[in-house]
Design goal:
10 helices, disordered N terminus, Nucleotidyltransferase, domain 5, about 230 residues
Length: about 230
């Protein structure tokens, strides 16, 4: 796709000629933070999706949870958890894993409403996730469905940050050590329940701050570009 070959800001300018929705246009018109900025000074939106499967071309977002980091602190008063109303019955295995029944799903909100709300909160911020493949592919699929285009993202991945840091410091890589719960344990963070989008978003936010604090001890200052790799 053409958008892979342009900088995010160049992508935004090209897409402004194609996108009409006011929230999408506001997102595109707002610059991403400069990669040279001190990472501690930036605002972040930490996001997690629960999905019906792993393939964004055929599976759906079941719920989304997100919180914000401002001034190096998780903003608990800004937490959002949305269950998405789907027009399909939920597979039994999905109900078992995520504890979201058909009744709870039917009381949820439509994807376009949840995406509008999320996009407004994302505007001007850096998005943080754990294992970016899921959130980036499902978010792009939702954007294409609702806005007609995949909008560019400035996204940090706590898994990728950790992997790069351990490779640079020549640490031994152990299978499964990059799972969210295992990394939190490595940083002596408390254990939270899994398979809740909001709890996983909060858990990711705390892990991200722990990673930055650890890197700060080893490096004289952290810029956004250092975290992007």
């Amino acid at each position: 796709m053409w958008w892979r070959w342009f900088s995010p800001e160049a992508q935004k300018q090209r897409l402004l000629k194609k996108v009409e929705h006011p929230l999408a246009r506001a997102y595109l018109e707002t610059p991403f933070p400069d990669k040279k900025r001190n990472a501690w000074e930036l605002d972040y939106l930490v996001l997690d999706f629960e999905t019906t499967g792993l393939d964004a071309s055929k599976d759906a977002i079941l719920s989304m949870g997100y919180t914000e980091i401002r001034g190096g602190r998780v903003q608990m008063d800004g937490c959002i958890h949305r269950i998405i109303k789907l027009n399909i019955p939920l597979p039994p295995e999905t109900v078992v894993i995520h504890k979201i029944t058909d009744d709870r799903m039917n009381a949820g909100i439509h994807l376009h409403d949840a995406l509008h709300e999320l996009l407004e909160r994302m505007t001007g911020k850096v998005v943080v996730v754990h294992f970016a493949h899921i959130e980036s592919t499902f978010l792009h699929a939702a954007m294409e469905r609702v806005y007609g285009q995949k909008l560019p993202l400035l996204m940090l991945d706590t898994l990728a940050i950790e992997r790069r840091w351990r490779e640079r410091t020549q640490q031994v890589i152990i299978p499964n050590q990059f799972r969210l719960g295992n990394l939190r344990n490595a940083y002596s963070l408390p254990r939270y329940g899994a398979h809740s989008a909001l709890m996983d978003a909060i858990a990711t936010a705390e892990l991200f701050l722990a990673e930055m604090s650890y890197m700060q001890c080893e490096k004289d200052g952290i810029r956004l570009g250092d975290l992007l790799g």
